[in-house]
Amino acid sequence: MGRVLLLLLFSTPVWSLINGINVEQDFSWQLTRVPRIVKGKTLSLESPKFEASAKLELRGVCGIECQQRLPGPHLSDLNELLSYETVFENGTRTLTEVNVLGAELDPVANATTKVLSRRKRQVYGTDSRFSISDTRFLTNFPFNTAVKISTGCSGILISPKHVLTAAHCVHDGNDYIKGSKKLRVGLLRLKSRGSGKKRRGARRSKREELDLKAYHTDARQLKRGVRSRAGRRQKASGLGEKKSERKPSFQWTRVKSTQIPKGWLRDVTGDVAVDYDYAVLELKRPHKKKYMDLGISPNSKTMPGSMIHFSGFDADRSGQLVYRFCSVSDESRDLFYQHCDAESGSTGSGIYLRLKEGDKKKWKRKIIAIYSGHQWVDVNGQQQDYNVAVRITPLKYAQICLWIHGTDENCAQG
């Protein structure tokens, strides 16, 4: 049943009822002119200490009320916030200054339409997540684009050598976190039933042994029908429970460099600014998997059912790829506020949509946001919790595109 449901979601056009007649709605990707972000001076900085502790739940961030008080951006502010740090595999670090050209500055404050109140939860009510167990889906697009970050987060492939994730997966606003100096990205692969046997002279890394052990533990629990989350029903195998002779494991690839916007740094913003909670990792060697293109985040009202989708490696389902979808509850200029069921570990996942591409009438998925995680924000003077995603605006599209290509020449339209 779960497999049928998701196949329908992935392949069926969106219909609405108008005057008692089913009418297909035309949801298409709209070409948007993107500002230019031009690289300026690159300065050498001291090597980071790599002493920060990873925090999968952010506190004290600029939330809904705070955003309503924010003034519209000025060009000088954008040049500062969109300058970026690059930290390399050998521990060296640089700062690249940028100039923003052709940006349409919106004087309207960053505001939301309504305020919602929720209790502290990352899974809201019945757990609606699907663990992807059928290998026919697991290694095919779009699920094959999801990756695991060695610091405990998720990410998504956006080029043959680049991964998009959340900034706080590698940096806490003051320093790079422990383990990010030797950062690794895990790509899902399948092993045949006999490939688990150790070849003569071959050695598994400690990380591979832990991943394999975690997978077998979860498989035994699923076989016994064990369900967690205090008796709430989980859709633990929503994309098929078919047994396969091939088992998933991670192929770990080293990260060559990491780039984060200066807007994420506390010494620039005075606090953690969730609007800039994104980072791009460049892999040391290219992968051979299909990746997902970037897209500019539309208004949620123009999305089919206001629905978003993402897949990641939730910590409570170790070794499993977990997929979910839900409607956007609220939005600001830079953030989606939603209640997609998600646990720590899925932070950094790429949120995507499936829309028609121009006159081609072909459906195409694109990344339109980065899942930042479960966060506490100020609402009417009280701390409330949301699951928050950072929208890819035209400016962020231009910056991420610059990081991928090294130049703005291929970043004119999103």
TrEMBL record:
Q: Where is this region: Disordered?
A: 222-250
* Signal peptide stretch: 1-16
Peptidase S1 domain boundaries? 139-202
Is Transmembrane helix set as a keyword in this record? Answer: no
Q: Which InterPro entries does the protein's record reference?
A: Glutamyl_endopeptidase (IPR050966), Peptidase_S1_PA (IPR009003), Peptidase_S1_PA_chymotrypsin (IPR043504), Trypsin_dom (IPR001254), TRYPSIN_HIS (IPR018114)
Where composition is biased (Basic residues), the residues are 222-235
- A single Pfam family, by name? Trypsin
Q: Does the keyword Membrane apply?
A: no
- Gene Ontology biological process: proteolysis
Subcellular locations according to the entry: Secreted
Molecular function, one GO term: peptidase activity
Gene3D superfamilies xrefs: Trypsin-like serine proteases
Keyword field: Glycoprotein, Hydrolase, Protease, Secreted, Serine protease homolog, Signal
Report the family membership: Belongs to the peptidase S1 family. Snake venom subfamily.
Q: What is this protein called?
A: Inactive serine protease 35
Can you name the source organism? Gekko japonicus
